[in-house]
Amino acid sequence: MDTVIIGSGNVASVLGRKILASGHRILQVAARNEVSGKLLAEQLGATYTSDLSNITGNGFLYIAAVTDDALPGLHEKLKVERAIVVHTAGSVSKEVLKPVCSNYGVLYPLQTLRADGDLIPDFPLLVDGNTPDTLTLIRDFAETISGKVVEADDDYRKKIHLAAVVSGNFSNHLYALVQDYCDASGLDFSLLLPQIREIVANLQRGHAAARQTGPAVRNDVETLNKHMEMLQAFPELSEIYELMTALILNYHAEN
């Protein structure tokens, strides 16, 4: 399928590589950032333009991998006929593309994507379309680049995006605080990685609550108090420790 990518950030870069590796042809990269746009176009064997008004009309699928706040203004410069336009955002309605093209939808990769990653990660693709025929075409394309494709309307995507932010972004920030704590305390953070991997692996074996361990679920008050004393010099981590301890205690008292 002849594809055009709009954008040159993390999502555009990883999706572009995934699409190319799946045997599709990428005709053009359109991006405001000339440096990253030209680099991505070169990597994908595509032409480059910084002006959406000069975008090729020969594509079949146009992927707007841009920031959420850039999507509402896309129609001011982009008009596409006889093709499909999709965006890649989790929390933006597909209807934002209605002024751009008569056939439109969503191709949302549910994954943390980094352009500088050496490997292309696997990820589910959540798809939607404004008509049954458009949705079928988007889904057929998605299934060539992902082993997990799910039809998801605006409401479902917004909710799963929220879940992704909490489970992914929030947990990553917690790891950042723990890394700071380890660095300041002369500890080797990498010693924790096997435990982190095992916790994630356990999520595939059942509900997370059934595998909760630690002093909070045991109501080990002595250990909890010792930990709070040790965290006095780390106010952010101390606050999270206290809050999470209370939440774990309450959760398991009620369930």
Describe this structure in a few short sentences.
With 255 residues, the chain is of the alpha/beta class. It has eight helices and eight strands, in the order βαβαβββββαβααααα.
Describe the structure.
The chain has 255 residues and is an alpha/beta fold. It has two domains: 2-152, NAD(P)-binding Rossmann-like Domain (Rossmann fold); 158-254, N-(1-d-carboxylethyl)-l-norvaline Dehydrogenase, domain 2, CATH 1.10.1040. It contains eight helices and eight strands. The protein has helices at 10-21, 34-44, 132-142, 154-185, 193-202, 215-218, 221-230, 235-254, and strands at 2-6, 25-30, 47-49, 61-64, 84-87, 104-109, 125-129, 149-151. Strands 3-2-1-4-5-6-7-8 form an eight-stranded mixed beta sheet, covered by helices on one side. β1 (2-6), α1 and β2 form a beta-alpha-beta unit. The longest helix has 32 residues, at 154-185. It is elongated, with a radius of gyration of 22 Å. The mean pLDDT is 94.
What is the topology?
Elements: E1 2-6, H1 10-21, E2 25-30, H2 34-44, E3 47-49, E4 61-64, E5 84-87, E6 104-109, E7 125-129, H3 132-142, E8 149-151, H4 154-185, H5 193-202, H6 215-218, H7 221-230, H8 235-254
Parallel strand pairs: 1-2, 1-4, 2-3, 4-5, 5-6, 7-8
Antiparallel strand pairs: 6-7
CATH superfamily of the largest domain: NAD(P)-binding Rossmann-like Domain
Main sheet: strands, sense, barrel: 8 strands, mixed
Distance between the termini: 51 Å
Number of individual domains: 2
DSSP strand count: 8
CATH class of the largest domain, please?
A: Alpha Beta
CATH architecture tag of the largest domain: 3-Layer(aba) Sandwich
